Amino acid sequence: MHEWTKDSLLMIGFSLTRQLQRPAHSTLFPLPRSPSKAPPCALPLCPSLSSIAAARHRHYPMASSPIFVGLPTFLLLLLLTTSGLFGQATGAVAPGPKPAPLNLTGILEKGGQYGTFLRLLKETQVGEQIESQLNNSFNGLTIFAPTDNAFNNLKPGTLNSLTTQEQVSLVLYHVLPRYYTLSTFETTSNPVNTQASGSSGVYTVNITSSSNQVNVSTGVNETPVNNNLHLDFPLAVYSVDKVLLPPELFGAKPPASSPPPVVAPEKPNKGSPAADGPSASAEAAPSAASPEGRSAERVLLLWVGLACMGSLL
User: Fold this and answer.
1) Which residues pair with 141 in a beta bridge?
2) Where does the chain have alpha helices with state H?
3) Residues 6+ apart with CB under 8 A from 135
4) Rounded to an integer, what distance in angstroms lies between the CA atom of residue 229 and that of residue 195?
5) Residue 135: which domain range?
6) Closest by CA position to 282, among listed 292, 272, 291
7) What is the pLDDT of residues 247-261, one digit of tens each?
8) Scanning 12, 18, 41, 236, which has its CA 20 to 30 A from the CA of 199?
9) What is the pLDDT of residue 282?
10) Which positions fall inside the FAS1 domain (predicted)?
């Protein structure tokens, strides 16, 4: 649809006003240009032009008035101009400025004591993942930020002993996939999922609240939730005094099962006969041809001889 501008509507209105301000008889009944009086009508019943104009002016005195003719036109043009300008003003309203994207790094740097956590966010590229997720999230995020003292209280070499993937899991273990305030912590149900996961599934934490104090427990350690660094949807950042240690990485591992003992096969005797020979009892008995058999035979004969000699005496 063609959009009428203010200037074009005013020009059209001015032209219509000029046209309508002319006397009515000048258009309907044009008079001759000569100033002489018009000759009387040939027909006696036909009135003259001047008498028609006079009669019209007598019955409708305002019909040929410029004010009477121009006022409706002026009101119409005013209405069109106002509506057109209103429509242009409505369509020309510029959208408000978009909110600046959330900057997790700036929030932690402003806190002043989260250098180690910032370094892990950068090295594992979890920081970029979090900021991208914040700008496209409907549920928001909650982050537990350990202080530098929390990392210093770990055993020496704890972070260096982790693989790159385990470090990613450790950082994501401090991120909850939902925006939580202190009041919503009181009504949440355990266990609470985190952003970390492994072969055993999603890593979880337990959150308890008592006497306006919120605690986070991992099963390995527990820490209170301190002051918030940022609390505005879609991001909530809370400071914690301990590094949350997932049991999947720092829990007690079951001892490795020892292999069953290996039974060595019994070695056969050197002088044993074949498997289809006599029984074991027969194998153990000395034969007559062996030296043991001959010595036993001699002892027996000696006893028999001694017994005979005793009977003769």
Assistant:
1) 235
2) 6-20, 24-28, 49-59, 66-91, 104-111, 115-123, 126-134, 148-152, 164-172, 182-187, 247-250, 280-284, 291-312
3) 101, 102
4) 20
5) 104-248
6) 272
7) 999 987 666 555 666
8) 236
9) 45
10) 101-244
